[in-house]
Amino acid sequence: MILSKKVIFVIFMSIVLLLVPASAIRGFLEEPNTKIDGYLRYVESPEYRNSEECPIIGSNYLICDPNLIHVAMTLDSQYLRGSIAAVHSVLKHTYCPENIYFHFVATKDSDFQELTQMVKSIFPSLSFKVYVFDGFRVKKLISSSIRQALDNPLNYARTFLAEIIEPCVERVIYLDSDVIIVDDIQKLWSISLTGSRIIGAPEYCHANFRTYFNDNFWSDTKLSKVFQGKKPCYFNTGVMVMDLGKWRKGDYTVKIEKWMEIQKEKRIYELGSLPPFMLVFGGEIEGIDHRWNQHGLGGDNLVNSCRTLHPGPVSLLHWSGKGKPWVRLDQGNPCPVDLLWEPYDLYRV
């Protein structure tokens, strides 16, 4: 029996809604207003309000209020549709949407004002700030990788969050633009970074860690000794809980930049911004439940292929890889998992 796309969608959404709390479907059926901005047509997001038990935001300087949950993302025209869907999913599934502050990072050469106005138009009550990221500093350190999209300077902005965001913000959740959250982000925020841990992320120790670096690295004992005495595992930098206070004290931006300089000289890996993070933090990550990064849904870095969900509960879906759900939906050839992303899409053709 061949099932239609509509039937497949209903089946998948039924499963997801059974897995998430009641708060996750607040406002799901609300009818938004249509808005047209520039060349893109979006609908205005429903307005999400705090539950009664949410902490009251009372500081005069909002961004420094200790009751806020800080989320950092990049913002550009190419991935704007994904970023908007991600924000929408965060707001829809949390009990305290008004307590979330978004930090968007955009490149200096992007249409900064238009992007800012578009976010305001789609999310009128959203607390956010857009920061200008000067990509020149990192552009000279970027080496070509296996996929051109990974060479975008904005892909390295996560390395500079501690410098970009106000010093009073000591903790942030970093999210890639190709994710949706189907759980309350407060649960991710509340995860402890124990001891000297600076980053929390799901680890995948079954993956062959050695393949992320080439022979130039492993044959050089001066370089490979960075992992001596550690048990490093692969982790995906598209979803991270970051202690910016510890990051600033340890000057970890400079440490990552030094590895990028070595890469320029010796070519020790083939991917983009991930390997320097693994070199600095590998073996010293606060492991988080895998439910917080069901990654790889976009296929691998070279092939746009369909993937299925990993076994177990799901809190965050991540279309890392070449294929993006909005592209495949527009082409009329979506993967089944793309139909889980579609309800959060505020773009209208």
Automatic annotation (TrEMBL):
GO terms, molecular function: glycosyltransferase activity
Entry GO CC: Golgi apparatus
Pathway in which the depicted protein is active: Glycan metabolism; pectin biosynthesis
Short name of any one Pfam family annotated for the protein: Glyco_transf_8
Residues making up the signal peptide according to the UniProt record: 1-24
Subcellular location: Endomembrane system
Alphabetized UniProt keyword annotations: Glycoprotein, Glycosyltransferase, Membrane, Signal, Signal-anchor, Transferase, Transmembrane, Transmembrane helix
EC number: 2.4.1.-
SUPFAM superfamilies on file: Nucleotide-diphospho-sugar transferases
Enzyme class per UniProt: transferase
Coiled coil start-end: none
Membrane topology of this protein: Single-pass type II membrane protein
Protein family membership: Belongs to the glycosyltransferase 8 family.
PANTHER family recorded: GALACTURONOSYLTRANSFERASE-LIKE 10-RELATED (PTHR13778:SF57), GLYCOSYLTRANSFERASE 8 DOMAIN-CONTAINING PROTEIN (PTHR13778)
Protein name (Swiss-Prot/TrEMBL): Hexosyltransferase
The organism of origin for this protein: Anisodus tanguticus
Lineage of origin: Eukaryota, Viridiplantae, Streptophyta, Embryophyta, Tracheophyta
